[in-house]
Amino acid sequence: MEVKKDVHEIIQKSKSIIILVSRPLDHDGITSAIVLRNYLKKKKKFVDVYSTRKITSKFLSLPYIEVVKVKDPRKMNLLEYDLVIALDGGNKRQFSCVEKDDEFNFSGNPNVLNIDHHLTNTHFASFEIWDPKASSTAQVLINSIIDIERIDEDDATLLYIGIVGDTGNFRYSFNGLTLEIASKLVKRGADYLYAVNMYMNNYNKVDFEIYAYLIKSTVYKLKSGYCYVIADYEKISVKFNCLIENIKDSIYLYETCFACAVKGIKFSLVLTRDREMINVSMRGNSLNNKIPLPEIGCEFDKSSGGHFNSSGFRIKGEINTVLQNLDKVIKEFKLKYES
């Protein structure tokens, strides 16, 4: 990865900086944002960190989590900052509550730095640190900005959590350098037991009840090598007397622990409705799946992004129609990539 000289120059000369965390906020995005904020503060910068998504209970025990504020950037004047850092997202709409990229322009601020590792990055920013070979944005930061030999134990733990989250605890999307970095983070004092338990064992009883419900509701398309489940937020919320937050945690559990662990299933789909939009989340088995999932998403939403085996998109329409169209596209891609 090559980091252009002008990237370091714009960081160095900027006195006030805002870090925007992409939606959906995840382990890698939130932990990377906090560590980058801590690094910039040591450089005597004024730094704000904002997310458009509410901080869920899963993140409340993170070191420094209180520095992350929640607000739609469209309601802020980003021109008040010398530099806007768009972290862990490959298009503009991921950093605000909008449906299309052209609905958000960072208040017209000409100094936008995008730090990202997703394959489908749209290269929207004035400045960029992009490494699609990196496991995570945490790894991009270590490769380009953060000196791993100078971080404290809290920052080491946060970066380790980011890597654990985006690699599924070293199950996919990592390389030898990722393991070397993880080893160095442990040597710097990263609490790896806390990191792994926060990622894998941080669930409530109702999360598993919903998880079991999703498993029972799964539809298998074994000939095409995928399965899907329709997660109706309103229906599930009433059935289990729970918050939307619990449903999302259960979906995450379903995607990471069950869907791609079934023999014959190469990737899974989770469909949810958000007002008039349908969200489709896709997860692949890194051993058996040969189809780049972002390419499926781009057939429906050109701004679809993510990793080879983890992607998603949003589309208007009826769920049954979307499922029919998805099945058709999946069959076409099977012929392209598996024949």
Task: Explain the layout of strands and helices.
Blueprint: H1 5-13, E1 16-21, H2 27-42, E2 46-51, E3 68-70, E4 83-87, E5 112-116, E6 127-130, H3 137-144, H4 153-167, H5 176-187, H6 192-200, H7 205-216, E7 219-221, E8 226-230, H8 233-240, H9 244-257, E9 267-274, E10 277-284, H10 293-298, E11 305-307, E12 310-316, H11 319-338
Parallel strand pairs: 1-2, 1-4, 2-3, 4-5, 5-6, 8-9
Antiparallel strand pairs: 7-8, 9-10, 10-12, 11-12
Helix pairs in contact: 2-4, 4-5, 4-6, 7-9
Please supply descriptive tags for the structure shown above.
inorganic pyrophosphatase (n-terminal core); six-stranded mixed beta sheet; alpha/beta; six-stranded parallel beta sheet; 339 residues; 19% strand; 38% helix; Diaminopimelate Epimerase, Chain A, domain 1
What does this structure look like?
This protein is an alpha/beta fold and 339 residues long. It folds into 2 domains: 196 residues, inorganic pyrophosphatase (n-terminal core) (Alpha-Beta Complex), CATH 3.90.1640.10; 133 residues, Diaminopimelate Epimerase, Chain A, domain 1, CATH 3.10.310. It is built from 11 helices and 12 strands. The chain has a 6-stranded parallel sheet, with helices on one face. Strands 7-8-9-10-12-11 form a 6-stranded mixed sheet. It is globular. 42% of the residues are buried.
The structure class reads alpha/beta
CA radius of gyration is 20 Å
Can you identify the CATH class of the largest domain? Alpha Beta
- Domains (count): 2
Write down the overall geometry.
globular
Question: Mean pLDDT score, rounded?
Answer: 92
Which regions are unreliable across 5 or more consecutive residues at pLDDT < 50?
Answer: none
Supply the CATH superfamily name of the largest domain.
Answer: inorganic pyrophosphatase (n-terminal core)
Most strands sheet: 6 strands, parallel
CATH topology of the largest domain: inorganic pyrophosphatase (n-terminal core)
Number of helices: 11
Strand order of the largest sheet: 3-2-1-4-5-6
Query: Considering DSSP H and I runs of 4 or more, what fraction of the residues is helical?
Result: 25-40%
CATH architecture of the largest domain: Alpha-Beta Complex
